[in-house]
Amino acid sequence: MGQKINPIGFRLGTTATWQSRWFADPKKYRLNLLGDIKVREILMKKLRPAGISRVEIERASNKLKILIFVSRPGVMIGRGGVGLLELKKFLLKELKIKDENTLEIAPMDVKAPDLSAYLVAQGIVDQLIRRFPAQRVMNQTVERVMRAGAKGVRVVLSGRIGGAEIARREWKAQGTMPLHTLRLNIDYAGVPALTKSGYVGVKVWINKGEGEI
């Protein structure tokens, strides 16, 4: 089962927590869920230069708190906090929130970007788009992640790798990756790379060792 299911969803409540934390009655549930999806889509595109890793959302009766995990918080906050104020104004407009006191944005620093599966996958995507050799990209990525302190890493590419006529699957792994062991903190991300030849799927698993929420 651990080989098939999403490693993060499999570990909810043990070493992983929910990225949307709120309760709602059936009438508001759909609107809140759509709102969360919209917020994530906006922020993942807008804050890509800041090295955004993930977005966590907390809702109370009259409060919306957005925790944004970035590897370069200075890019997001801006000089004197100008960038953060502009981002808040933008979200207030997009989400049609009238009272600005009900929205709180909390930048969170990602101290080890090379241990974030999403940031690692995004780095691979950027290199594949620039037509770097796939094998070299995977080898360098695996070595960098292991140097950052990971217990294990696995990278899988699938699609028309290097512009090949026939799609294929290539992978590179190092260290241990026991996906059935729930006490291990395993991060996972899948990001598509749109190259000139077509899409190449990029999947990354990173074993950070034993951990708690």
TrEMBL record:
Domain of life from the UniProt record: Bacteria
Molecular-function annotations in GO: mRNA binding; rRNA binding; structural constituent of ribosome
Record's keyword terms, sorted: Ribonucleoprotein, Ribosomal protein, RNA-binding, rRNA-binding
KH type-2 domain location: 39-111
Single GO BP term: translation
Pfam families in the record: KH_2 (PF07650), Ribosomal_S3_C (PF00189)
An annotated GO cellular component: cytosolic small ribosomal subunit
CDD domains in the record: KH-II_30S_S3
Family: Belongs to the universal ribosomal protein uS3 family.
Complex formation: Part of the 30S ribosomal subunit. Forms a tight complex with proteins S10 and S14.
The protein's role, per its UniProt record: Binds the lower part of the 30S subunit head. Binds mRNA in the 70S ribosome, positioning it for translation.
Protein name listed in UniProt: Small ribosomal subunit protein uS3
Originating species: Candidatus Daviesbacteria bacterium RIFCSPLOWO2_01_FULL_40_24
Organism lineage: Bacteria, Candidatus Daviesiibacteriota
